[in-house]
Amino acid sequence: MTGERKPTIFVAGHRGMVGSAIVRRLQALGHATILTATRDELDLTDQAQVAAFFEQHAIDQVYLAAAKVGGIQANNTYPAEFLYQNLMIEANIIHAAHRADVYKLLFLGSSCIYPKLAEQPMREDALLTGTLEPTNEPYAIAKIAGIKLCESYNRQYGRDYRSVMPTNLYGPNDNFHPENSHVIPALLRRFHEAKLRGDGEVVVWGSGTPMREFLHVDDMAAASVHVMELEAETYAAHTQPMLSHINVGTGVDCTIRELAETVKRVTGFKGELRFDASKPDGAPRKLLDVSRLKALGWQARISLEDGLQDAYRWFLDNQDRFRG
Fold first, then answer.
1. How many whole angstroms from its chain centre is CA 2?
2. Is 303 a known ligand-binding residue?
């Protein structure tokens, strides 16, 4: 392999939390030829633009990390956009990659693809065995379509398009919007601002009883590159043609109450916690079975408390972008 040309790697969504972490990981591993494009430079929902981009560049690998994402409230408020935009992004990129003869692609999905009441921990073969969680069904359907699109190009055209399904992610470059963010950035910001105001309590959505698994985005990036770089025979030995995705998580979960208590400790908030049970809880539990990924030689390394401290430091260093 010595002296072999390094592949040109297109990271779609490089400014997002996951995409930026993948770029950092690739750079740390010495991959100098990394191709990116901002939203102003390339509209991933525009089929013609995406096709032209792939025609203009000699791309060897694609990390498809671009997506419209958000928490329960955002999914409830904008279901059409979550379904349409994610379908367009993945369909345009996967098809353009095939047309440009890109052999290797990694599609990043979400653990919300699994049924609301799936047996815990959720194995890859739970896909399409039951009803989805209603609050994020459009996003989940789009991600399921992406998995099946990759599998279909593999079956029909012999491509090597792989999919990884992460659990709940958090870390640097997360979205800290007060209404449209996921639970960890929402809590970090809420507890931080309550501390600054000297509030006596912080209200947390839901009952606090649902259980969730959380993975630091740097671990997700490391897992993504690990899966992408596996030999085709090794990957195939642990997957199936019509069940090709791999779960990525820690294999450990906690209640939302426990999470809130940890965030309180990390941010230094001294007041009380109050849970608003009138707000939706989402799925009662979401824990991934990560035995397939462990068998492929990878497991998470960053603990929840260490990861939350890192995410909070990043938020403190970047507060200006979240004002207003």
1. 33
2. no
Contacts of 29 (CB under 8 A, 6+ apart): 225
Q: What are the backbone dihedrals phi and psi of residue 91, each rounded to the nearest 5 degrees, phi first?
A: -65, -45
Domains and their CATH numbers in the chain:
9-175+213-252+285-303 (3.40.50.720)
The number of residues making up the chain comes to 324
Active centre residues (catalytic): 139
The span from the CA of 80 to the CA of 141, in Å, is 12
Contacts of 124 by beta carbon, 8 Å cutoff, 6+ apart? 165, 243, 245, 246, 247, 289, 292
Contact between 311 and 184 (Cβ < 8 Å): yes
Q: Is residue 45 part of an annotated ligand binding site?
A: no
Which residue has 């910001």 as its token pair? 189
Please tell me whether 314 is known to bind a ligand.
no
Give the phi and the psi of residue 270 in degrees, each rounded to 5: -105, -5
Within its chain, how far is the Cα of 235 from the centroid?
Answer: 20
- Angle (CA) 177-147-36 rounded to 5° is 55
Q: DSSP assignment, residue 123?
A: P
- Residue 230 — pLDDT band, cuts 50, 70, 90? very high
- Please give the torsion angle defined by the CA atoms of residues 188, 194, 200 and 206, in that order, rounded to the nearest 10 degrees: -40
Establish whether the linkage from the previous residue to 185 is cis, with ω within 30° of 0. Answer: no
Q: In this predicted model, what pLDDT tens digit does every residue of 97-108 receive, in sequence order? A: 999 999 999 999
Q: Is 149 helix (H, G, I), strand (E, B) or coil?
A: helix
Does 8 score more than 90 pLDDT? yes
Residue 73: pLDDT over 80: no
Can you give the pTM of this predicted structure? 0.93
State the pLDDT at residue 135: 84
